[in-house]
Structures are given as structure tokens and as C-alpha cells.
Amino acid sequence: MKKTKRQSASKKEVTDPFHYMTGFGNHFSTEALPNALPVGQNSPQELSYGLIAEQLSGTGFTAKRHENQRSWLYRIHPSVKQSPYEPVVSEIWESGPFSDTWLTPERLRWNPQPPTEPRCDFISGIRTVAGNGDASMRQGSAIHLYSASQSMEKRCFCNADGDLLIIPQDGGLSIDTEFGRLQIKPTEIAVIQRGIKFRVSLLGPQASGYLLENYGNPFRLPDLGPIGANGLANPRDFNTPVAWFEDSNEPTQLLTKFGGHFFTCNLDHSPFDVVAWHGNYAPYKYDLKTFNTINTVSFDHPDPSIFTVLTSPLDHEGLANVDFVIFPPRWMVAENTFRPPWFHRNIMSEYMGLIEGVYDAKPDGGFLPGGGSLHNCMSPHGPDGTAVEDATKTKLTPQKQENTLAFMFESSFLYKPTAFAINGGLRQENYTDCWQNISPTFDAANTGK
């Protein structure tokens, strides 16, 4: 195995590869060796260090300038240098179009998944819960769980079907990508865009969490409108890795997901051999603790869209292929109102997960960290009986909602559960019982005055 001693960051050798450039959607330039980036043109006849230029485009060539996403990579080996693809079968990671077999308007909830089998890495430990749309038509999304007990060894992964939003719930991850290294832990997220090769190493003995596969338009920050300039997630808090590379001749297996199917090929080198890159199509991480929560100071719980971190929009304004929404620690301040999330039926379909603590609308204990719930289009849902009882009696003074971090994937399309979701042993068959102890308090003589 041949490996360079220089494996990190811009214009000088450093020992810690976990450095990041800040900003969302900006044009970045970074090099792991001095003068590796060409000046004045993208790919001169002879590049420094004998590197090869390669462009990675995440949008169509003629996309609007402010929407166009692409990066130039200056690497040791071109990506074309690989063996022919061979199909492989995956029975655990499913893709759209999804079967109608398990489609139901019923409210669903799941327990956390148990520890994974020994010697199970990030990719082999993925289980699909639900999804919608069609990977080959670039619309919709899929919801997965991951659970791993070992790092990816001598293999890497590339998803041609969509962006991957990784949400750790237990255990940290180190993610090597063609653009550099990312390190995330619970309360942080990472996005690995379509077509980017990566491998995942564990920072502890076990790791588990949630994974959203976005087939549709790339994630972006939501428009702020009347919120103004400073609310929700701010661009400066998103971090992109600096250039980092391996110069290795050790054989590597590349597993590729394409059109909902899996293919494998072999490389005679490390795919993480990009010495320099520039552009605006690159993986990134975000610390959910930096989210600037906007909440009510008068009455009523605001719509959940006020907590949107990232959105994959549809062409029709106001509809989303999928939104990523969080419910972080926050001050609960409101006057003369029912404070928890209200009961509602929604045209959007909602999958919720819990990273840590207790969700304020579900204090009864059935919604646990690592678990999840699904409320599809127009299925009624809301706070459980205990939350209702407390909310009608609690003195409405300012309160800090702490020890909590929940999230939601919200889509304009129906989420179709998988066989694993229905019969995989995690579903709580008594979920609807959490609302049965809500007793009517109607009194025609009580005018409320």
C-alpha cells in the first residue's frame, strides 16, 4: 500500500484532517498541496503534480446560474478507471417506486431498532421504513434506518439516485468523501449529494440513526419571507470539508446504487484521491444546535414549517418533495392558549424521529429516541392523553423546553411503508391507544365566560 504523508488541508500539511470551510451554497476553493489548483483556466494542458481534471455536475448544465451546482476535481486517477459493473441484490435497502401492499391511512409508530449484528457496516446495516416517488424519475424520497458495528473496509459507496441526509442518533461517524472528511455526532447532520463516493468509519463500537434519501431537487435553505434575515438555519453554520486525499494502490470495491438497483465494480486505487477542488457541489455538515428557533410569543403553536432546516422544493410554490424539520430545545412562551402542538389533519405526510430526550406532545413514553412515527396525508394526529391533560392545567408562564431534539420528514407525497416497517418486529401495534384516554369535557352550560 502506497500512501502519501500529505493527506490534509489547504496549502500546508496538517495532522488533523477535520477542518471545514463555512457557508452554504458558496463557491469554494481548496487544495491539499500548494498550487494544485490551476489558475486562470479549469484544465490546462498540464496540471501541477500530474493531476487529472474532472467535473462533477449536480444539476443540468443549463440550470439557472444561482441554481447551477458543479465542482471541478483535480485527482490522481480519473473516475473512469474501474472494472465493469456487475449487478448485486439487496433485500434490505428498498427504492421507489414503492409497493402499495402495505399502504394504510393508519397512524404508525415504531420502537428503536436493537443493536446490529457483529461485523455490519454502515451500508449493509440500512433498513428501509417507507418511501414515495420514483428514484429513476428523480422525485420523492425514502426513509431508512442505519445501524453499524464496524467501519467500511476496502469498499466505498456511491448513490446515483439522490442526496443522502444522515442523522446520527447514537454514536459518531467519520465520513471520507472525494471532497475531504466530515465528522458528525448526534445533534449534527451531514448531506452527501448524488454521485459522490464515500465511506463511513465508526467513532465508537456502535452507531445508529436515520437516513433520508432525497430523489428530488437538491436540498436548499427555505425562503425566510417575513421571518427576515436571521431566522432558522443560517448559511454561515454549514461546513464543507477542505481537500484531503489518499494516494493508495490498495484494491477497493465500489458499490453503486442506480435506478433503485445495486451494482459493484473494482478499483485498483483509492477513490479519495482528489488533491484539490473548487465549486459549489460538495458534501456538508450542520450542527442542529445552531438553529435559530422562531416561536410564538402571543398565542397558538406555530405551523411546523417554522422549524424547517432544509427543503427539497417542487416546482409549485408551497409544496415540497420533502422538508427536513426539527423541534429543538426552545422557550415556550404563549398567552391563554393550548401550548403543545394542536390536533390536526394535514395534506402533507409526516415521518417523525427522536434523536434525544422527550417530545413535548408525546410524554407517555411510547415515542423513544431511535424510534419513529408516520402520520400520512389527512390521518388525524396530535398530542397524547397525558400531554392534553397537562396542557389544560399547566400555568402559562414562560417555560424552557429542554432535553429534546425531534425531527420530521414532511412530504407532499404519501409515504408507503415497507414490509420491514409493518412486520419487522419494531411496530407498536397499540400506538392508537395513546389517544383513547382523552375524555370529553363538553358542557353546554359552560360558556367559557
UniProtKB/TrEMBL annotation:
Enzyme class, first EC level, given as a word: oxidoreductase
Pfam families, per the entry: HgmA_C (PF04209), HgmA_N (PF20510)
Cofactor requirement: Fe cation
Domain annotation Homogentisate 1,2-dioxygenase C-terminal: ranges: 289-440
Keywords, sorted A to Z: Dioxygenase, Iron, Metal-binding, Oxidoreductase
EC number(s) recorded for this UniProt protein: 1.13.11.5
The name this protein goes by in its record: Homogentisate 1,2-dioxygenase
Source organism of this protein record: Kistimonas scapharcae
